[in-house]
User: Which sequence fits this backbone?
């Protein structure tokens, strides 16, 4: 079950969050692939655990319990690290998103991610629309059209005009929206992670108990 959740989250992260990953990390991250790989391995070992139970093999159950203990420790460390270093994650996002805004050209991957983020969250710039005034894109093109709340009433001439532009674009910055979402859902994410880890801890204990029972029965039969 835990493996299926990690696999689903990894696939969802790759398909839905792929364009935004470049805005969250300084360098490209393989986090979705790590989740997909981890989820797949957990599912495979889950099937191995079922096979070990059906065979009644103590050494297979012990191997399965050892694997679950390693996964449990890894998830525990990952969950604690994410909670402890959440402020550093916010700082990294602020830095990378600011760089993406300042170097925006409407063509590369980071620029497309900025447009998608601003359009979906209905925000503009890092802290507000004035963040675009310092970008290399602004002097010749103005504020990007992705900041406009009405695309039919949004032209480059108005977006270059510091007097007219504020009446046509969103005023709330994207950094505040993203970080508030992270803080609001941090407890939920941590709860899900610890829930998965706890289920694996229970599986590890049950595998150890079953292994001892099978071993004891084998000795009694002898």
Assistant:
């Amino acid at each position: 079950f835990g493996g299926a959740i990690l696999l689903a989250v990894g696939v969802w992260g790759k398909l839905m969050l792929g364009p935004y990953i470049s805005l969250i990390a300084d360098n490209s991250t393989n986090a979705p692939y790590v989740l997909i790989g981890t989820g797949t391995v957990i599912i495979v070992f889950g099937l191995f655990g079922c096979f070990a139970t059906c065979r009644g093999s103590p050494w297979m159950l012990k191997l399965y319990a050892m694997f679950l203990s390693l996964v449990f420790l890894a998830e525990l460390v990952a969950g604690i690290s994410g909670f402890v270093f959440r402020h550093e994650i916010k700082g990294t996002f602020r830095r990378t998103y600011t760089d993406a805004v300042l170097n925006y050209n409407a063509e590369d991957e980071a620029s497309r991610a900025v447009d998608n983020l601003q359009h979906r969250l209905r925000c503009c710039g890092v802290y507000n629309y004035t963040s675009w005034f310092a970008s290399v894109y602004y002097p010749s093109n103005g504020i990007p059209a992705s900041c406009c709340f009405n695309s039919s009433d949004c032209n480059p001439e108005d977006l270059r005009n510091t007097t007219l532009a504020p009446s046509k674009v969103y005023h709330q910055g994207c950094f505040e929206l993203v970080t508030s979402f992270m803080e609001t859902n941090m407890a939920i994410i941590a709860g899900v992670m610890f829930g998965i880890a706890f289920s694996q801890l229970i599986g590890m204990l049950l595998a150890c108990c079953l292994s001892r029972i099978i071993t004891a029965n084998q000795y009694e039969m002898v």
